[in-house]
Amino acid sequence: MFAMFVLCLWSASAKATPVTVIYEFVRDASTVVKTIWPFSSKTYYIDGQFQMIVDYDAGIALFHEVDATLSSEIEYYDYDKGEFLFTDSIDVLFELTGLESVYVSDTKIDFLLERNIPTFPGSDIHLTATFTDDSLLRMTGYFGAPVYDGPWYNLNATAVVVPEPATILLLCAGWLIIRRKNL
C-alpha cells in the first residue's frame, strides 16, 4: 500500500501541470500613474481580477482572462492604429495578455513586451510580479508612449488570491464542525 502511495506521488510530480490562480486587485493598493513630464501626473485605481497561469517546469507564465478596469478612462497610444485612443482596461493599456515571461521562479516573474522601436526604447513594456506569500502578489511595471514628450505609465499594484469555491466550502464545513464540537 505504501509503495502504491509513493508511486502515485512520483507520477504526479513527473507530470507537472501549469498552475492557474485567480487574483483580485486590491483597489486602494493598485494604481496606474500617467505622467507627462515635467508638467503633470494623474493616478488611476484598478478594480477587477485576472488569471495567471504558470508552468514552473517550462519557465512560462502568462496572464489570462483579465477583467480589470481603471477608475476612469486613460489616454494611450494605440500602436496598430498609430493614434491616441481612450480605454479603461488595464489589459489594453499594459497589454497584459500579450506579455511574454522572460524569467520565472517561485518568488518572481518578469514579463516583457518588446516593441523594438529604436527611437523610443522606453516603449517596451516591463512588468514584474512578485509573490510575497501564498495569497499576495505585488506587480510593478512601466512603459512610455512612442511619441516625443509622450506620457509614461507606471503600474504599482497588489492582488490577492480569490479562493476557489471548493476551498470556501471546505472552510465553512470546518468552521461548522469546530463550532458544533464546542457546543
Q: In angstroms, what is the radius of gyration?
A: 21 Å
Number of domains: 1
Number of strands: 10
What do the pLDDT scores average to? Answer: 84
Helical percent range?
A: 10-25%
Layout of helices and strands:
Layout: H1 2-14, E1 19-25, E2 31-36, E3 40-55, E4 60-78, E5 83-89, H2 90-94, E6 100-104, E7 108-113, E8 125-131, E9 136-144, E10 152-161, H3 165-182
Antiparallel strand pairs: 1-3, 1-10, 2-3, 2-10, 3-4, 4-5, 6-7, 7-8, 8-9, 9-10
What's a concise summary of this model?
With 183 residues, the protein is of the alpha+beta class. The protein is 20% helix and 50% strand.
Structure description:
- Strands 1, 2, 3, 4, 5, 6, 7, 8, 9 and 10 form a ten-stranded antiparallel sheet that branches.
- The chain is 20% helix and 50% strand.
- By secondary structure, the chain is of the alpha+beta class.
- Mean pLDDT is 84; it is low at 1-15 and 166-173.
- The chain has a single domain (17-182), classed as Lipocalin (Beta Barrel), CATH 2.40.128.
- The protein is globular.
Characteristic terms for this protein:
alpha+beta; 3 helices; single chain; disordered N terminus; 183 residues; 10 strands
